[in-house]
Specification:
With about 600 residues, the protein is of the alpha+beta class. Helices cover about 55% and strands about 15% of the residues. The strands form three sheets. It has a five-stranded antiparallel beta sheet with strand order 2-1-5-4-3. Strands 7-9-10-12-11 form a five-stranded mixed beta sheet, covered by helices on one side. A two-stranded antiparallel sheet has the order 6-8. Helix 4 packs antiparallel against helix 5 and helix 15 runs antiparallel to helix 17. The protein is elongated. The N terminus is likely disordered.
Length: about 600
């Protein structure tokens, strides 16, 4: 394993330490800390060399002193020239070992066992003990023993008595204790330093992350502020719709120009002053006998009851608002729930559209349809009665007269059917339309309709085919016959000569019945399919070809199927044909058991 010398021996931080060390570090370069760590030893060694000029200190072996000096100089040179950051970890022990060698020769050259410079051995001992692992303390203890035994090794005449051995062992023991203690203290300090470094790195990372989050938060805040300003400008510029925003308790917070124009209130009269329920012409009724509720609870319950679902199935709900002048206006409401960041309801956005004229026109049209239907039904019934008397009477009629009366009867019956359709649609709108279900077989109803409409299809040049299986259900046979007649007559009417209309009827797995009417006619445009069962609607393909009709047949078929709890599905391809599928349950939802 390799690592840099600098990674294990911390350098003097910038701005820290003495000014002298800072100046030295600035001149020594990247490995300045290695040289700095040799300065204590080199300084003490220089003092030791200077003391050799004292007469009372004996230099017994001059060459050993010179070797010691050479090793000391080598320590300084090696510390300065070697690129320690690129060397393996074990090289960290080289300089302290050289110091031990230097001290050993100095001790040998200045009296050996009695040298006063023996205590210098603790300097490299401390340096080795500061290294990672137990290699440094072991080397330091071995080095101390070698220094003590060096005089005896180099000079066989040196006496090794008991006192010398005990002194050597005691010094070795002290060196061992010092090395172990220094090693443990250094390891703890190193662990704390590394922990502080890790915490500093994490702190720096958190600071950077907080800075990035702050920038992102500022960006999001600016974007939300810009979006809010844009939304407010859009809301304020909307004048055809009244846009009102409330908090969770129904207190009005936004009241745009369209709302001011529709209701006559100024924004300052409503915002933070009124609840949405204060704008209603009449308050929402509370449940009978229920507890009294706070105004905020009533407003919230009202808004929740008319929130437009996310699937968009319910497009709106009518309400009556009171204007500032006391007059009332009918509006169609679309309410959207606003959620807070924690998912709770923060408020509601209400879009109100004035439909007063539209609803009044619809009411007048319904009254007109009902009035005309009743006023026409009675005379037509009388006309048909007298026609039957003329045709079945005892007076002889010429062929020409009989043909005239037949034409009159056919058209009168056509008009009577139209009046009946108008009356049925009026009953549906009024909620008075009802069916009389009983046990029947849908196959019999289809067979009867095919028999009555067969001549019509033959006259139009359209082939009428069937696939019939028994399909018993509980239903109103008269109304279902009306459905089948409308679907088959429509299919024949919109199928050119040479085409085909196919009817199939059979049971469904849930015990109900299914009827399919498929033609090879002119088809219907995709964007018109959803409006096909609307009263008085006629497809573009029908109006272009001037195909007669008033657009009530499919509306009546849908009403009858809905009353039975069934479904009417329509599939069509323009120019290829249309398929109507009626699916009925085994019994209507409210049929008597």
């Amino acid at each position: 394993m390799t690592s840099s010398y600098r990674s294990t021996i911390p350098s003097v931080p910038a701005g820290g330490g003495s000014r002298l060390l800072t100046k030295i570090a600035s001149r020594l370069g990247d490995d300045a800390n290695v040289v700095e760590r040799q300065l204590p030893f080199l300084g003490v060694y220089l003092v030791a060399v200077l003391t050799l000029w004292i007469p009372s200190i004996t230099v017994s072996v001059p060459w050993a002193v010179w070797v010691s000096a050479a090793v000391a100089v080598s320590v300084a040179v090696v510390a300065r020239l070697v690129r320690w950051r690129d060397e393996p970890e074990w090289t960290q022990d080289l300089l302290p070992i050289m110091q031990i060698v230097c001290i050993g020769f100095l001790r040998y050259g200045t009296g050996g066992i009695g040298s006063i410079f023996t205590v210098m051995i603790f300097l490299p001992v401390l340096a080795l003990a500061a290294q990672r692992g137990w290699r440094g303390p072991i080397i330091s203890v071995v080095g101390v023993n070698l220094v003590i035994l060096l005089p005896a090794i180099l000079d066989p005449d040196t006496p090794l008595d008991t006192l010398v051995l005990v002194r050597g062992l005691f010094v070795s023991l002290v060196a061992l204790v010092v090395a172990v203690t220094a090693h443990e203290v250094t390891e703890r300090l190193r662990a704390r330093t590394e922990a502080v470094a890790v915490m500093r790195d994490r702190e720096q990372e958190m600071v950077e992350r907080m800075r990035a989050d702050a920038f992102e938060l500022a960006r999001v805040a600016d974007a939300r502020r810009a979006a809010r300003d844009e939304l407010v400008s859009i809301i304020d510029s909307a004048t055809e719709q009244a846009i009102i925003a409330t908090d969770a308790t129904g207190v009005v917070r936004v009241f745009n120009a369209g709302a001011e124009r529709l209701l006559g209130y100024a924004q300052g009269e409503v915002v933070d002053r009124l609840r949405i329920t204060d704008l209603y012409a009449s308050p929402e009724p509370e449940p009978p006998g229920g507890p009294q509720r706070a105004p905020g609870s009533v407003a919230a319950r009202l808004l929740e009851s008319i929130v437009t679902p996310e699937d968009g199935v319910r497009t709106g709900r009518d309400a009556r608002y009171r204007r500032r002048d006391g007059s009332e206006v009918t509006v169609r409401l679309a309410v959207t729930r606003r959620l807070d960041v924690d998912g709770s309801v923060a408020g509601y956005v209400i879009v109100a559209t004035d439909v007063t004229e539209e609803r009044e026109a619809s009411r007048l049209k319904d009254e007109f349809v009902s009035l005309v239907s009743h006023e026409l039904r009675t005379p037509l019934t009388s006309v048909l009665g007298y026609l039957e008397l003329l045709l079945d009477g005892t007076d002889e009629l010429t062929e020409e007269q009989r043909s005239y009366l037949t034409v009159i009867e056919r058209n009168a019956r056509r008009q009577l059917r139209l009046v009946g359709d108008l009356l049925l649609t009026a009953q549906v709108d009024a909620g008075t339309f009802a069916i009389s279900p009983r046990g029947i077989d849908l196959a019999d109803v289809v067979t009867g309709s095919v028999a009555s409409l067969g001549p019509v299809a033959e006259q139009a040049g359209v082939r009428l085919t069937t696939t019939i299986e028994p399909a018993p259900v509980t239903a109103d046979p008269g109304r279902l016959s009306q459905v089948v007649d409308n679907l088959v007559s429509n299919a024949v009417k919109f199928t050119p000569a040479g085409g085909e209309v196919h009817l199939s009827v059979g049971p469904t797995p849930d015990g109900g019945a299914a009827l399919s009417v498929r033609d090879t006619g002119i088809g219907i445009a995709p964007d018109e399919l959803s409006r096909l069962t609307t009263r008085f609607f006629r497809a573009t393909s029908a109006t272009r070809r001037a195909i007669p009709g008033v657009g009530l047949g499919l509306a009546i078929a849908r009403a009858v199927v809905d009353a039975h709890g069934g479904l009417l599905d329509i599939e069509s391809t323009l120019g290829e044909g249309t398929t109507f599928v009626v699916t009925l349950p085994s019994a209507p939802p409210h049929a008597p058991a």
